[in-house]
Amino acid sequence: MRRQQPFRIARRRILGPLALLLCAWTCLMAGPAAERPTATSKPTAATAPAVTNSWKPNFPDTALIPQGQFVFDRNCAVCHGRSGDGWGELARSLTPRPRDFTRGYFKFRSTPAGFLPTDADLRRTIREGLAGTAMPIFNQLEERDVRSLVEFIKTLSPRWQQRTNYAPAVIIADRPTWFEEPEALKAQAEKGRQAFSQMCVACHGEDGSGNGPGAADLEDNWHHPIRPADLRKPSIRRGREPEEIVRILLTGMDGTPMISFAELSTEEQRWQLAAYVLQLREKAEPDKK
Description:
Elements lengths: L4 H26 L34 H11 L1 H4 L38 H10 L14 H11 L28 H18 L1 H4 L37 H10 L15 H18 L5
Helix pairs in contact: 2-5, 4-5, 6-9, 8-9
């Protein structure tokens, strides 16, 4: 019994501080919402979209997970970390930081705010990369490797095991016909400018450059500094078409200060905002000779 006593004392010395640390972390995460980043919405019955009987959640396919882990280790772990926590070998040198898959929140989705992305969303990010980030285009991967990788990513957070975190993609209405009429497009973009000044200027700035008065203090949900997108660039990270602008307005970008404007704007306003963003891009382009 005496031989075990030093081990027990050492164990108490180690576990005691760990218990206090765990307790402090639990209290921090359970604190008032105002003290933590609030950009990520949580799915609720009120925000969940209506679904048909034919729609089913895309739970992880266990048969593909071993292959997916192999693909992840070879292609993704250097940035995202072996456990998917976003702390790979190169992570500290990258801006923005690689996604932490263990939290289960994704910026680029076609689903409502707070819900998991679809398989198609994940495949698109893998295949097309993300402009302006270190996320490259993985067009060299075989289709089965991409599918397996998607399934492995879905094992890295317990959120993928809960049906209430799944939802179908939001429906984007057809582009208004006035996009094809220069004068009408100009008039609608002016209305978009007015909406922009009310909803977007604080972060994106008057000129859409991402230097609004509140931009300097923004953080993501991992407490990393984050800058609003420069809307004057040829494309946002999700794409360059007006539909992609409307989609982001509907879905928001989970884990960032970019909230969903689905309940704060009308369909007409979202298309008008898209028209104005296109106008910002045109103004920022160098004169063509």
